[in-house]
Amino acid sequence: MNNVFIHLGTCNTCKKILAELGPKAKKLESRELKSEPLTGAELDALKKLAGSYEALFSRRSQQIKTLGLDVSTFGEKDYRKYILEHYSFLKRPVIVIDGKITIGKP
After folding, report:
1. Measured between alpha carbons, how far is 20 from 65 in angstroms, rounded to an integer?
2. pLDDT by 10s per residue, the chain, length 106
């Protein structure tokens, strides 16, 4: 994945960050996560840039409490599984520009 802005359309922080990118934003493919979820291959490509699935995992997701998850017991396979199962487990936004990744609020 290259030159992409992965976000939620309803996320005000994502909108603010997109606006702050200015002219760079026009070069990015906009990917709305809820309507266009990540595939396993796409998530694997992001993991390669980020170094781990844990780095991509949002510990602020409401789904953690809803599902009663104990994230402290998670391994890389668990992080990957949950990110693929529900969009809210991906820390947002994810920005990839020229092979460099930024996850969450820069």
Report:
1. 32
2. 889 999 999 999 999 999 998 888 888 999 999 999 999 999 999 999 999 999 999 999 999 999 999 999 999 999 999 999 999 999 999 999 999 999 998 7
What's the N-to-C CA distance of the chain in angstroms?
A: 19
Number of residues written out for the chain: 106
Task: Report the alpha-carbon distance of residue 18 to residue 14 in Å, rounded.
Answer: 6
**CATH classification at residue 24:** 3.40.30.10
Domain count, the chain: 1
- Other beta carbons within 10 angstroms of residue 66's beta carbon come to 10
Neighbours of 90 (CB within 10 A): 26
Prior bond to 93 cis, omega within 30? yes
81: domain range? 4-103
Q: Is 78 left (phi over 0), alpha (psi -120 to 50) or beta?
A: alpha
